[in-house]
Write a structure and sequence with these properties.
With about 180 residues, this protein is an alpha/beta fold. The chain has one domain: NagB/RpiA/CoA transferase-like (Rossmann fold). The protein has helices at about 5-15, 20-35, 60-65, 140-145, and strands spanning about 45, 70-80, 85-90, 95, 105, 110, 120, 125, 130-135, 150-155, 175-180. The protein has a 7-stranded mixed beta sheet, sandwiched between helices. A two-stranded antiparallel sheet has the order 4-5. Strands 8-9 form a two-stranded antiparallel sheet. The longest helix is centred in the N-terminal third of the chain and has 16 residues, at about 20-35. GO terms for molecular function: 5-formyltetrahydrofolate cyclo-ligase activity; ATP binding; metal ion binding.
C-alpha cells in the first residue's frame, strides 16, 4: 500500500484501540525500552505524546530516562521551513500546544541534532525494512537526516510492521529499530 492509504488505515486502526489494549501494548513496549543498553547514551530525544491521537504515552519514558541520569530532549515545529528545533526538557520547562495541538517547549535551552544519542520517533506504521509512515509533513525525515550516523533511531508503534511501504521517497529515512507489542 502507498503511504497515503496506510496513513488513513492506521489512523483508523489506532483510533479503534481500546484503553485496555493501549495500556497492555504500552507496558510491553516500555519493557522492551527498559531492556535497551543505554550505557553510552547522554541525550535522549522523545516526542511529547498527543493523547487525542492515541500515541504511546512517553511520560513514563521521560521519568525512566531521567532516573538513569539521561537528559531529555523534545522538539518544536518551525512551520515556515517544516523543520524541527530541539530543546532540553527539564522539570521547569513550560509546554504549550502549537496550532496543530502538538505539545512544545517554550522556555528551554536549544540543542543540535548532532548531540542526540538515542531518538524515539512516533509513527502510524512501519515496514520490515524499518521505513515508517508518519503524519505526512516530513518533519521527522528532515530531522533524522541531520542526526549523527551512530545515533540510535527507534520507532514506537502499536502495530506489527507490514511487509513493504510503497512509494517511498529518496528523503525517507530507515529507522534502526521499531518497538511494537510482541
Amino acid at each position: 500500500m502507498k503511504k497515503s492509504e496506510l496513513r488513513k488505515l492506521y489512523k483508523e486502526k489506532r483510533n479503534n484501540l481500546s484503553e485496555v489494549e493501549i495500556t497492555q501494548f504500552q507496558e510491553n513496549m516500555y519493557q522492551q525500552i527498559y531492556d535497551l543498553d543505554i550505557s553510552n547514551v547522554k541525550n535522549v530525544h522523545l516526542f511529547l505524546s498527543m493523547r487525542k491521537f492515541k500515541e504511546i504515552d512517553t511520560k513514563p519514558l521521560i521519568g525512566y530516562f531521567r532516573s538513569k541520569n539521561k537528559r531529555i530532549v523534545v522538539s518544536r515545529c518551525n512551520f515556515e521551513s517544516t523543520t524541527l528545533s530541539h530543546f532540553y526538557f527539564d522539570e521547569d520547562t513550560k509546554i504549550t500546544l502549537n496550532k496543530f495541538g502538538v505539545p512544545e517547549p517554550i522556555n528551554a535551552e536549544e540543542i543540535l541534532e548532532t548531540e542526540l544519542d538515542l531518538i524515539f520517533v512516533p509513527m502510524l506504521i512501519s515496514d520490515e525494512n524499518n521505513y515508517r509512515v508518519g503524519y505526512g509533513k516530513g518533519y521527522y525525515d528532515r530531522f533524522l537526516s541531520n542526526c549523527r550516523k551512530d545515533a540510535m533511531i527507534i520507532g514506537l508503534n502499536f502495530f506489527k510492521p507490514i511487509s513493504k511501504i510503497e512509494g517511498l521517497h529518496e528523503f525517507d529515512v530507515a529507522l534502526d529499530n521499531v518497538i511494537y507489542p510482541r
